[in-house]
Specification:
Layout lengths: L7 E7 L6 H9 L6 E8 L5 H6 L7 E6 L4 H10 L5 E6 L3 E2 L3 H12 L3 E9 L5 E4 L7 E2 H4 L14 E4 H7 L10 H12 L1 E13 L12 H12 L2 H11 L7 H22 L8 H7 L1 H11 L3 H19 L1
Parallel strand pairs: 1-2, 1-4, 2-3, 6-10
Antiparallel strand pairs: 4-9, 5-10, 6-7, 6-9, 8-10
Length: about 325
Protein backbone atom coordinates (compact mmCIF):
# COMPACT_ATOMS: atom_id res chain seq x y z
CA UNK A 1 0.00 0.00 0.00
CA UNK A 2 1.44 3.39 -1.02
CA UNK A 3 1.61 6.19 1.53
CA UNK A 4 -1.36 8.15 0.19
CA UNK A 5 -3.48 4.99 0.23
CA UNK A 6 -3.22 4.75 4.02
CA UNK A 7 -6.20 6.46 5.59
CA UNK A 8 -5.54 8.20 8.89
CA UNK A 9 -8.29 8.45 11.52
CA UNK A 10 -7.83 11.35 13.95
CA UNK A 11 -9.93 11.06 17.12
CA UNK A 12 -10.69 14.36 18.85
CA UNK A 13 -12.48 14.59 22.20
CA UNK A 14 -13.82 17.97 23.29
CA UNK A 15 -15.67 19.36 26.28
CA UNK A 16 -16.44 23.09 26.52
CA UNK A 17 -13.70 23.92 24.07
CA UNK A 18 -15.12 27.06 22.48
CA UNK A 19 -11.91 29.05 23.02
CA UNK A 20 -9.58 26.69 21.16
CA UNK A 21 -11.36 23.93 19.26
CA UNK A 22 -11.70 25.85 15.98
CA UNK A 23 -7.91 26.30 15.78
CA UNK A 24 -7.35 22.61 16.53
CA UNK A 25 -9.76 21.49 13.79
CA UNK A 26 -8.34 23.97 11.26
CA UNK A 27 -4.82 22.69 11.93
CA UNK A 28 -5.97 19.14 11.18
CA UNK A 29 -7.86 20.00 8.02
CA UNK A 30 -4.83 21.98 6.79
CA UNK A 31 -2.50 18.98 6.93
CA UNK A 32 -0.32 18.32 3.88
CA UNK A 33 -1.51 14.71 4.12
CA UNK A 34 -5.06 14.68 2.76
CA UNK A 35 -6.23 11.08 3.12
CA UNK A 36 -7.62 11.49 6.61
CA UNK A 37 -10.84 11.58 8.56
CA UNK A 38 -11.47 13.66 11.67
CA UNK A 39 -13.93 12.16 14.10
CA UNK A 40 -14.96 14.62 16.81
CA UNK A 41 -16.88 13.54 19.87
CA UNK A 42 -18.42 16.42 21.82
CA UNK A 43 -18.62 15.22 25.42
CA UNK A 44 -21.78 17.13 26.32
CA UNK A 45 -20.41 20.67 26.00
CA UNK A 46 -22.56 23.41 27.51
CA UNK A 47 -20.81 26.34 25.81
CA UNK A 48 -20.73 27.27 22.11
CA UNK A 49 -18.61 24.25 21.08
CA UNK A 50 -21.46 22.52 19.23
CA UNK A 51 -22.17 25.52 16.98
CA UNK A 52 -18.47 26.06 16.29
CA UNK A 53 -18.05 22.46 15.18
CA UNK A 54 -21.06 22.66 12.86
CA UNK A 55 -19.09 25.20 10.83
CA UNK A 56 -16.72 22.42 9.75
CA UNK A 57 -19.33 19.98 8.50
CA UNK A 58 -18.78 21.31 4.96
CA UNK A 59 -15.69 19.10 4.84
CA UNK A 60 -16.65 15.49 4.07
CA UNK A 61 -13.68 14.28 6.10
CA UNK A 62 -15.26 15.54 9.35
CA UNK A 63 -17.69 13.48 11.41
CA UNK A 64 -19.17 15.32 14.40
CA UNK A 65 -20.72 13.12 17.11
CA UNK A 66 -22.21 14.02 20.49
CA UNK A 67 -22.67 12.26 23.82
CA UNK A 68 -23.92 13.20 27.25
CA UNK A 69 -21.07 14.35 29.49
CA UNK A 70 -19.30 11.09 30.38
CA UNK A 71 -15.63 12.01 30.25
CA UNK A 72 -12.72 12.31 27.85
CA UNK A 73 -11.96 8.58 27.72
CA UNK A 74 -15.55 7.72 26.82
CA UNK A 75 -15.43 10.42 24.13
CA UNK A 76 -12.32 8.88 22.56
CA UNK A 77 -14.01 5.46 22.66
CA UNK A 78 -17.07 6.94 20.96
CA UNK A 79 -14.92 8.49 18.23
CA UNK A 80 -13.02 5.23 17.70
CA UNK A 81 -16.26 3.32 17.19
CA UNK A 82 -16.89 5.42 14.04
CA UNK A 83 -13.33 5.26 12.66
CA UNK A 84 -12.48 3.54 9.37
CA UNK A 85 -8.77 4.29 8.99
CA UNK A 86 -5.61 2.21 8.58
CA UNK A 87 -3.67 4.42 11.01
CA UNK A 88 -4.90 6.19 14.14
CA UNK A 89 -4.02 9.09 16.40
CA UNK A 90 -5.92 10.96 19.07
CA UNK A 91 -5.82 14.69 19.66
CA UNK A 92 -6.78 17.30 22.26
CA UNK A 93 -9.14 20.13 21.42
CA UNK A 94 -6.75 22.83 22.66
CA UNK A 95 -3.57 21.73 20.82
CA UNK A 96 -2.43 22.33 17.24
CA UNK A 97 -0.84 20.13 14.58
CA UNK A 98 1.83 21.74 12.44
CA UNK A 99 1.15 21.21 8.70
CA UNK A 100 3.34 18.11 8.20
CA UNK A 101 2.44 16.40 11.49
CA UNK A 102 0.50 13.56 9.83
CA UNK A 103 2.63 13.25 6.69
CA UNK A 104 5.89 12.93 8.64
CA UNK A 105 4.51 10.18 10.86
CA UNK A 106 2.96 8.23 7.98
CA UNK A 107 6.31 8.37 6.15
CA UNK A 108 8.05 7.07 9.27
CA UNK A 109 5.59 4.16 9.58
CA UNK A 110 6.38 3.15 5.98
CA UNK A 111 10.13 3.82 6.13
CA UNK A 112 10.63 1.76 9.28
CA UNK A 113 7.97 -0.81 8.39
CA UNK A 114 6.62 -0.38 11.91
CA UNK A 115 3.28 -0.01 13.64
CA UNK A 116 3.92 3.00 15.91
CA UNK A 117 5.76 6.33 15.75
CA UNK A 118 5.79 9.46 17.88
CA UNK A 119 7.19 12.97 17.64
CA UNK A 120 8.03 15.82 19.99
CA UNK A 121 5.80 18.74 20.96
CA UNK A 122 6.47 22.33 21.91
CA UNK A 123 4.91 23.61 25.12
CA UNK A 124 3.20 26.94 24.45
CA UNK A 125 1.25 29.44 26.50
CA UNK A 126 -2.43 30.16 25.85
CA UNK A 127 -1.50 32.48 22.97
CA UNK A 128 0.75 29.81 21.41
CA UNK A 129 3.99 31.58 22.27
CA UNK A 130 6.55 28.78 22.28
CA UNK A 131 8.17 28.09 25.64
CA UNK A 132 10.18 24.85 25.50
CA UNK A 133 10.14 21.29 24.14
CA UNK A 134 7.78 18.88 25.86
CA UNK A 135 10.51 16.24 25.96
CA UNK A 136 14.25 16.78 26.21
CA UNK A 137 16.40 14.25 24.35
CA UNK A 138 13.58 11.83 23.40
CA UNK A 139 14.41 8.67 21.47
CA UNK A 140 12.96 5.54 19.96
CA UNK A 141 11.30 3.48 22.71
CA UNK A 142 11.40 -0.30 23.15
CA UNK A 143 9.48 -2.58 25.45
CA UNK A 144 12.64 -4.18 26.83
CA UNK A 145 14.22 -0.88 27.87
CA UNK A 146 11.27 1.36 28.63
CA UNK A 147 8.22 -0.48 29.99
CA UNK A 148 9.24 0.31 33.58
CA UNK A 149 9.81 3.99 32.78
CA UNK A 150 6.19 4.54 31.73
CA UNK A 151 5.23 4.45 35.40
CA UNK A 152 7.83 7.06 36.30
CA UNK A 153 7.02 9.79 33.79
CA UNK A 154 4.87 10.47 30.76
CA UNK A 155 7.31 9.45 28.03
CA UNK A 156 4.97 9.87 25.07
CA UNK A 157 1.86 12.02 24.89
CA UNK A 158 -1.10 10.46 23.13
CA UNK A 159 -1.42 13.27 20.60
CA UNK A 160 2.17 12.71 19.47
CA UNK A 161 1.66 9.13 18.29
CA UNK A 162 0.44 7.44 15.15
CA UNK A 163 -0.38 3.74 15.31
CA UNK A 164 -1.54 0.94 13.03
CA UNK A 165 -5.09 -0.38 13.24
CA UNK A 166 -3.91 -3.69 14.73
CA UNK A 167 -2.53 -1.80 17.73
CA UNK A 168 -5.58 0.47 18.00
CA UNK A 169 -7.84 -2.57 18.14
CA UNK A 170 -5.88 -3.77 21.19
CA UNK A 171 -6.21 -0.41 22.97
CA UNK A 172 -9.87 0.43 22.37
CA UNK A 173 -12.21 0.59 24.04
CA UNK A 174 -10.22 2.16 26.86
CA UNK A 175 -11.88 1.39 30.23
CA UNK A 176 -14.43 4.15 30.79
CA UNK A 177 -13.52 4.25 34.47
CA UNK A 178 -10.13 5.79 33.61
CA UNK A 179 -9.81 9.57 33.82
CA UNK A 180 -6.79 9.81 31.51
CA UNK A 181 -5.63 7.85 28.49
CA UNK A 182 -1.89 8.47 27.95
CA UNK A 183 -0.40 5.73 30.13
CA UNK A 184 -2.97 3.19 28.95
CA UNK A 185 -2.34 3.88 25.27
CA UNK A 186 1.43 4.22 25.69
CA UNK A 187 1.96 0.91 27.50
CA UNK A 188 -0.34 -1.01 25.17
CA UNK A 189 1.41 0.45 22.12
CA UNK A 190 4.81 -0.42 23.54
CA UNK A 191 3.82 -4.01 24.33
CA UNK A 192 2.07 -4.81 21.06
CA UNK A 193 4.40 -2.84 18.75
CA UNK A 194 7.57 -3.67 20.75
CA UNK A 195 9.20 -0.54 19.24
CA UNK A 196 7.88 3.03 18.99
CA UNK A 197 10.01 4.93 16.52
CA UNK A 198 10.81 8.56 17.29
CA UNK A 199 10.75 11.34 14.70
CA UNK A 200 13.24 14.03 15.62
CA UNK A 201 10.86 16.90 14.81
CA UNK A 202 8.49 19.07 16.80
CA UNK A 203 5.15 18.61 15.05
CA UNK A 204 2.61 19.44 17.76
CA UNK A 205 1.96 22.66 19.72
CA UNK A 206 0.90 21.72 23.24
CA UNK A 207 -1.06 24.59 24.73
CA UNK A 208 -0.93 25.31 28.48
CA UNK A 209 -3.77 27.42 29.86
CA UNK A 210 -5.72 27.99 33.06
CA UNK A 211 -8.16 25.13 32.52
CA UNK A 212 -5.54 22.39 31.96
CA UNK A 213 -5.89 19.69 34.60
CA UNK A 214 -2.12 19.72 35.17
CA UNK A 215 0.66 21.97 33.99
CA UNK A 216 -0.76 25.48 33.92
CA UNK A 217 1.20 28.36 35.43
CA UNK A 218 -0.44 28.63 38.83
CA UNK A 219 0.57 29.66 42.33
CA UNK A 220 2.30 27.25 44.67
CA UNK A 221 -0.80 26.14 46.60
CA UNK A 222 -2.74 25.53 43.39
CA UNK A 223 0.19 23.53 41.99
CA UNK A 224 0.08 21.10 44.91
CA UNK A 225 -3.70 20.76 44.62
CA UNK A 226 -3.40 19.95 40.93
CA UNK A 227 -0.67 17.40 41.59
CA UNK A 228 -2.84 15.61 44.12
CA UNK A 229 -5.73 15.73 41.66
CA UNK A 230 -3.48 14.09 39.08
CA UNK A 231 -2.34 11.35 41.45
CA UNK A 232 -5.91 10.56 42.45
CA UNK A 233 -6.48 9.29 38.91
CA UNK A 234 -3.70 6.70 39.11
CA UNK A 235 -4.97 3.88 41.40
CA UNK A 236 -7.85 3.10 39.01
CA UNK A 237 -5.37 2.93 36.13
CA UNK A 238 -3.34 0.25 37.91
CA UNK A 239 -6.47 -1.75 38.69
CA UNK A 240 -7.51 -1.73 35.03
CA UNK A 241 -4.00 -2.52 33.83
CA UNK A 242 -3.82 -5.51 36.17
CA UNK A 243 -6.80 -7.00 34.35
CA UNK A 244 -5.56 -6.08 30.88
CA UNK A 245 -2.13 -7.72 31.12
CA UNK A 246 -3.77 -11.10 31.63
CA UNK A 247 -4.45 -10.99 27.87
CA UNK A 248 -0.94 -9.91 26.85
CA UNK A 249 0.64 -13.40 26.74
CA UNK A 250 3.68 -12.33 28.75
CA UNK A 251 6.24 -14.98 29.64
CA UNK A 252 5.77 -16.12 33.24
CA UNK A 253 8.88 -14.42 34.64
CA UNK A 254 8.12 -11.21 32.71
CA UNK A 255 4.51 -11.37 33.91
CA UNK A 256 5.60 -11.70 37.55
CA UNK A 257 8.04 -8.81 37.22
CA UNK A 258 5.47 -6.55 35.59
CA UNK A 259 2.84 -7.41 38.21
CA UNK A 260 5.29 -6.35 40.94
CA UNK A 261 5.97 -3.06 39.17
CA UNK A 262 2.24 -2.39 38.93
CA UNK A 263 1.48 -3.34 42.54
CA UNK A 264 4.27 -1.18 43.97
CA UNK A 265 3.22 1.82 41.89
CA UNK A 266 -0.37 1.27 42.96
CA UNK A 267 0.70 1.11 46.60
CA UNK A 268 2.65 4.37 46.34
CA UNK A 269 -0.24 6.10 44.55
CA UNK A 270 -2.86 4.97 47.07
CA UNK A 271 -0.75 5.95 50.07
CA UNK A 272 0.09 9.31 48.52
CA UNK A 273 -3.51 10.32 47.78
CA UNK A 274 -4.37 9.38 51.38
CA UNK A 275 -1.48 11.60 52.62
CA UNK A 276 0.42 8.61 54.03
CA UNK A 277 4.21 8.63 53.87
CA UNK A 278 5.78 5.51 52.35
CA UNK A 279 9.03 3.93 53.55
CA UNK A 280 11.56 3.83 50.67
CA UNK A 281 12.00 0.08 50.27
CA UNK A 282 14.20 -1.25 47.47
CA UNK A 283 11.12 -2.68 45.74
CA UNK A 284 9.31 0.69 45.83
CA UNK A 285 12.34 2.58 44.51
CA UNK A 286 13.02 0.01 41.77
CA UNK A 287 9.41 0.01 40.61
CA UNK A 288 8.57 3.71 40.95
CA UNK A 289 11.91 5.43 40.56
CA UNK A 290 13.63 7.77 43.01
CA UNK A 291 12.29 10.95 41.38
CA UNK A 292 8.64 9.82 41.50
CA UNK A 293 9.01 8.57 45.07
CA UNK A 294 10.51 11.89 46.22
CA UNK A 295 7.76 13.86 44.51
CA UNK A 296 5.05 11.81 46.22
CA UNK A 297 6.58 12.32 49.67
CA UNK A 298 7.23 16.00 48.96
CA UNK A 299 3.55 16.54 48.11
CA UNK A 300 2.54 15.04 51.44
CA UNK A 301 5.04 17.31 53.23
CA UNK A 302 4.03 20.32 51.06
CA UNK A 303 7.50 20.55 49.52
CA UNK A 304 6.38 19.62 46.00
CA UNK A 305 6.82 23.10 44.54
CA UNK A 306 10.45 23.31 45.64
CA UNK A 307 11.15 19.80 44.36
CA UNK A 308 9.52 20.55 41.01
CA UNK A 309 11.56 23.73 40.59
CA UNK A 310 14.75 21.78 41.32
CA UNK A 311 13.80 19.06 38.81
CA UNK A 312 13.05 21.67 36.14
CA UNK A 313 16.38 23.40 36.81
CA UNK A 314 18.29 20.11 36.52
CA UNK A 315 16.46 19.25 33.27
CA UNK A 316 17.40 22.59 31.74
CA UNK A 317 21.04 22.19 32.75
CA UNK A 318 21.14 18.66 31.30
CA UNK A 319 19.70 19.95 28.03
CA UNK A 320 22.33 22.69 27.82
CA UNK A 321 25.14 20.22 28.54
CA UNK A 322 23.86 17.71 25.97
CA UNK A 323 23.77 20.42 23.31
Amino acid sequence: MDMEEKKVSILLAVFNGENYVAEAVESILSQTYKNLELIICDDGSTDNTHNILKNFEYDSRVLHTYQNHTGKVAAFNNAFSHATGDLFCLFAHDDLMLPTAIEARVKSIITHNCEAVFCNSCICDAQLNRLRPLYYNPRTLTWAEDHRNFFRQNMMGGGNTLIAKRIADKIYPIPDSLLFEDWWTGLHILWYAKVIHYINDTLILYRIHDTNSIGAHVDDNEFIKKRFSDWKRHPQFYQCLNKSINTWNLESDEYDEFKKIISNNQLLAERTVHRQLTFPTIEILNACGFKKYCMSQAMILHLAVQIQKLITFISVIKNIVNK
